Each structure stands twice: as structure tokens, then as C-alpha cells.
Automatic annotation (TrEMBL):
This is UDP-glucose 6-dehydrogenase. Belongs to the UDP-glucose/GDP-mannose dehydrogenase family. SMART domains: UDPG_MGDP_dh_C. It comes from Reticulomyxa filosa. The keyword DNA damage does not apply. NAD(+) binds at residues 12-17, 37, 93-97, 134-135, 168, 280-283, 350. It comes from the Eukaryota.
């Protein structure tokens, strides 16, 4: 029988660490959960009365945090104390694509991860279970174990891999009812088995046993990269076919529906779009490509690289078609961008297709008016800097207008492009929008059937692309 007084900590209070640990706290009231981060601002946001929606807009999250915070859920910037107190430490730090040195542009940057491991090794006061929650290259647990054991206090750290499969916008639902929980560990040794049992015990509080899958460490680490690669591959596959549809008169939604009804294919993740975004798909595939290249699997690397290349092409193709259809010039035209987040129900803009489309249009000297219900002006500014989306010597304020609502963004614009499928865009008064636009008015639907939901469009004199071959 396990103790009821068990403490888990998590290093990294981001999109994964925060919601995941909040769910553990909710479902395991007898477990103390400490979420620690080196970023004090991040911690004070988690500790604030109202979670700042631009930082953590995630449906259902605030309620869970409020129910548990101060009871068995604690957010702290004191990482030492969290490590010392905990029996089990999740590491959920960011592992972005490396930007420098060997593997730049492809390999995962493991700097944060190694710093976290060194931190644990330095301050731990006893044996600990260390759980990889971050997405990591296969065989990282081996290096993690070496770093952790490089202390002279003879402490033992049992490393587990427990990748996270939540998607943003549905994180709380995904965490409450996961398709599966994956736990990789050294299942050949007693200490490894005990550690696996302990983590299984946590999840068993709410996840049916048959959905908790235990594997060896390497299968678990690799499965996470492969799951993301397969999901992204479906999006790139359907996007490639969208280009074919536009040239042939076939309808991408009809094709998606037709193939998706085959149970072997399934109907999810077949929504054509302006391209996938988010912090992980591209990063994880590039990581997979890098691993394959490093071990000499050139053909495998090329195969997966194509998923990312197709996505880049789709984003560029979308912007090019906008320019082409607006009589080959968008110079000084106002273009309304509805949505900036990489998908609905999140304020996250990492790798959002919107910034790439904006960059292309700005290079063509357009002016852009942006409205997103959950992305702040400050965030959009940071993204334009980070992605170097503004032409050299151009000021943000002279080219970009951040608007408080969709009507303001669309007013006086020559075109609208729908970048994010926010539900509220379905309920806009499109007659009013149309009346306020320069004519001829264009709408470009980066979410394909999205504008069709607003059947309204058919009766307007709008030209729209990338959904049906209307032109
Ligand atoms: P994030 O950037 O939102 O959060 C990471 C946090 O870790 C930051 O707040 C940062 O300050 C903190 N941090 C960095 N180094 C630290 C250290 N040494 N000690 C303590 N804190 C430290 O990242 P995220 O989106 O939560 O992703 C975390 C990991 O989870 C990544 O590996 C990612 O690939 C993976 N993942 C993300 C998602 C997602 O939807 N975002 C889903 C599944 C898996
Ligand atoms: C994705 C995976 O779905 C999660 O399982 C995984 O845990 C996570 O990555 C991760 O490792 O970070 P997320 O990026 O939050 O989750 O969101 P998704 O719903 O997968 O969407 C990713 C992108 O693909 C979005 O830009 C979305 O608009 C696009 N997409 C998705 C499409 O264009 N078409 C689709 O049919 C589905």
C-alpha cells in the first residue's frame, strides 16, 4: 500500500506543466502538488485571483486551479524547495528547436532540460523519481540519468518517460479523459518497476487501467514524436489535396468526408487549412528528421521532412493566391486578419500560420488590421519581432492596426482573411461588414468550410477562395 502523503513537483509552469498538474491535484486530493518555475512572472500569474486570459486561456482551467490552489496545489518560484519536498518530480520545461550550433533549425534544444536535471541533482536531499513530461528525443532518459547521477551523495534517481498528449484549447477535457496515458520506464529492474507503479497509481485515480500503457523508456519517448508526426502528416496530406481540388473542381470537404468515412482512415484531423501551427508539430517532426539523419536513415528523414515542407508551401500558397486574386497587388490595401492564434480556444500564437501570411502580405506592402479575441497587442508585437515579419525599417504602428473587434478590423478593408476558426466569427453581422468594406470585397478562408458555415456569404458580392472554386 502506498502512503497517502505523497508529494509531486513539476519544474515548468507552462501550457503543459500548469494544466497537467492542476488535473493531478483535482483528481488526487491526498497528493500535494507543487508547480515551480524559474520565471517569477509566470508564477505570479498562476497565483493571481484571475488567471490572465492572454497567458492561460484554456477552457475549464481556471475553475480547476481555483478549486485546488492552496488546498493541494501550489505554484512557486522556489524550485529548490519544490525539489526537496517532492518524492516525484515532473520536468515539463520547454524544448524548442535549436537555433545555434550543430543541428540548428532541426534538433531539440535540450538546454532547459539539462539545467533542470542538474538542478534536481544539486539540491535533492534523497532518492527521487524524475518524470520526463517534456517532449524529448528518443534516448534522452539515458543522458538525463547520467546528469542526475553525477552527484557525490549516492542518491538514486529513477527516470520515467510520461509524454503529454493534450491539445491546447481542449487541454482540460484531454487531461480528464485521455485516449491513453503512456508511461515508459526501466521495466526490467525492480526500482524501475516500482517507479512505474507509483506513477500508474497517480493516474489510476481517474484514468481506467486499460488506458494506462506501460512500455520501455525508448518506446515511450519515441511514441510522442511519432504521434505528433502522424497527426501533422494528416493535415499536410489533406492540404496537399486541397491544392489539387482547387485545380480540378473537386471539393475538399467532400473528399475529406468521403475518405474519412472509411473506418480504416477515420474522420479526424482531415480539416484542410492555411497550414498547421502551434509550438510542437513542426518542432517535433524536425526533431524526428534530425534523429533519422544523425543515424543515417536518409530516406526516413526525407519522408518526414516533406510534412513540414508541404505545410510551408500551403502557408505561402495561401498568401500568394490572395495577392494574385486581388489583381496582383495589395500595396497599401488594408487587409483584415480575423484570428491570430494558431487555432481556436487558445491565446497561443507559437508558429501560427497567421504570422507567416502577414509577413508575405507585408512584403507586398499591404497594411494589416488584426483582431483576435484572446491574443493581446503586446503578444502580436512580440511575434512580429520574433518572426521578423515586418520589412526592414518599417514601424509596427505604420503597417499593423490591432483592433478591438472584427467590425473595426474589417472596416475599410479590401479583403478579409480568416486565420483562426473562432466560433464568434460565425455570428458576425456579415452584411454590416460587407457594407463597410472597400469594393470589390474579398474574403479568403484559411479554415476552408468555415465561411460556408455563414451561408450568408453566398448572397453577398464577395469573392472567396480556398473553400470552393467560386471564381
Ligand atoms: P512553455 O514554454 O509554455 O513552458 C515551459 C516553462 O518551463 C516556462 O514557463 C519556463 O520558464 C519553464 N522553465 C524552463 N526551464 C526551467 C527550469 N530549469 N526550471 C524550472 N522551470 C523552467 O512550454 P509548454 O508548451 O508547456 O511545453 C513544455 C513541453 O511539453 C515541451 O517539451 C513541449 O514539446 C511539450 N508539450 C507541449 C504541448 C502543448 O500543447 N503546448 C503538448 C504536449 C507536449
Ligand atoms: C497537438 C496534438 O494534437 C497534441 O496531441 C499534442 O500533445 C500537442 O500537439 C503537442 O505535442 O504540443 P495542438 O498543437 O495543441 O496539439 O493542437 P492541434 O489540435 O493538434 O492543432 C495543431 C494545428 O493543426 C493547428 O494549427 C490546427 O488548426 C491544425 N489542424 C488540426 C488543421 O489544420 N486541420 C486539422 O484537421 C487539425
Amino acid at each position: 500500500k502506498f502512503d497517502f502523503e505523497y508529494t509531486v513537483a513539476c519544474l515548468g509552469a507552462g501550457y503543459v506543466g500548469g494544466p497537467t498538474m492542476a488535473m493531478v491535484a483535482l483528481k488526487c486530493p491526498e497528493v500535494k502538488v507543487i508547480v515551480a518555475d524559474i520565471n517569477e512572472k509566470q508564477i505570479s500569474a498562476w497565483n493571481s485571483d484571475k488567471l490572465p486570459m492572454y497567458v492561460f486561456y484554456e477552457p475549464g482551467l481556471e475553475e480547476v486551479v481555483k478549486a485546488c490552489r492552496g488546498r493541494n496545489l501550489f505554484f512557486t518560484a522556489d524550485c529548490d524547495k519544490a525539489v526537496i519536498e517532492a518524492d516525484m518530480i515532473f520536468v515539463s520545461v520547454n524544448t524548442p528547436t535549436k537555433k545555434y550550433g550543430a543541428g540548428a533549425g532541426k534538433a531539440a534544444d535540450l538546454k532547459n532540460w539539462e539545467l533542470a536535471a542538474r538542478h534536481i541533482s544539486r539540491v535533492a536531499n534523497g532518492d527521487k523519481i524524475v518524470v520526463e513530461k517534456s517532449t524529448l528525443p528518443v534516448r534522452t532518459a539515458h543522458s538525463m540519468s547520467r546528469v542526475l547521477h553525477a552527484n557525490d551523495r549516492k542518491l538514486h534517481f529513477e527516470v520515467l518517460s510520461n509524454p503529454e498528449f493534450l491539445a491546447e484549447g481542449t487541454a482540460m477535457k484531454d487531461l480528464a479523459k485521455p485516449d491513453r496515458v503512456l508511461i515508459g520506464g526501466n521495466n526490467k529492474e525492480k526500482a524501475g518497476k516500482n517507479a512505474i507503479d507509483r506513477l500508474v497509481w497517480i493516474y489510476e485515480h481517474w484514468v481506467p487501467k486499460e488506458r494506462i500503457l506501460t512500455t520501455n523508456l525508448w518506446s515511450s519517448e519515441l511514441s510522442k514524436l511519432v504521434a505528433n508526426a502522424f497527426l501533422a502528416q494528416r493535415v499536410s496530406s489533406i492540404n496537399s489535396i486541397s491544392a489539387l481540388c482547387e485545380q480540378t473542381g473537386a471539393d475538399i470537404d467532400e473528399v475529406a468526408k468521403s475518405i474519412g468515412m472509411d473506418q480504416r482512415i477515420g474522420n479526424r484531423f482531415l480539416q484542410a487549412s492555411v497550414g498547421f501551427g502551434g509550438s510542437c508539430f513542426q518542432k517535433d517532426i524536425l526533431n524526428l528528421v534530425y534523429i533519422c539523419e544523425s543515424i543515417g536513415l536518409k530516406e526516413v528523414a526525407e519522408y518526414w521532412q516533406q510534412v513540414v515542407s508541404m505545410n510551408d508551401w500551403q502557408k505561402c500558397r495561401f498568401a500568394q493566391r490572395m495577392v494574385k486574386s486581388m489583381f496582383n497587388t495589395v500595396a497599401d490595401k488594408r487587409i483584415a486578419m480575423l484570428g491570430f492564434a494558431f487555432k481556436k480556444d487558445t491565446g497561443d500564437t507559437r508558429e501560427t500560420a497567421a504570422v507567416y501570411v502577414a509577413k508575405h502580405l507585408l512584403d507586398e506592402r499591404a497594411k494589416i488590421a488584426i483582431y483576435d479575441p484572446r491574443v493581446s497587442e503586446a503578444q502580436i508585437k512580440m511575434d512580429f519581432d520574433y518572426y521578423e515579419a515586418l520589412p526592414k525599417d518599417e514601424k509596427f504602428s505604420s503597417r499593423i492596426d490591432i483592433c478591438k473587434d472584427a467590425y473595426g478590423a474589417c472596416k475599410g478593408s479590401h479583403a478579409i482573411c480568416v486565420m483562426t476558426e473562432w466560433d464568434e466569427f460565425k455570428d458576425l453581422n456579415y452584411q454590416k461588414i460587407y457594407d463597410s468594406m472597400a469594393k470589390p470585397a474579398f474574403i479568403f478562408d484559411g479554415r476552408y468550410d468555415f465561411v460556408l458555415v455563414v451561408g450568408f456569404f453566398y448572397c453577398l458580392n464577395l469573392v472567396f477562395f480556398l473553400d470552393r472554386n467560386i471564381l
